[in-house]
Amino acid sequence: MKSHFVCLTALLLALAACDVPITSSDPTEVAYIETLPEGVIALAAPNQNLQAVKVLPEDGCYWYLHDGPVEATLLPLRSRDGRPICTRAPDEVAT
């Protein structure tokens, strides 16, 4: 009976480690945009997740959540010609 309890506990711990939530309890974290502007949708290259996009205050650019086979990570939202889509000019970011 004790060995079953140990095995069950180990199994539950192993399964709990498999799924880490992406959400954060940090109140300063930027939320995802619910509705993207039509201009951004028109500029965005295909094969990018337009359902989970946010603008980071550090650079003023749009970033999307890429859910890869190993981990989920934020990637810059790019136009069809490969340029990042931003809300302000690059020289404004440097100041």
From TrEMBL:
Signal sequence segment: 1-19
Alphabetical UniProt keywords: Signal
Protein name: Lipoprotein
Lineage, highest ranks first: Bacteria, Pseudomonadati, Pseudomonadota, Alphaproteobacteria, Rhodobacterales
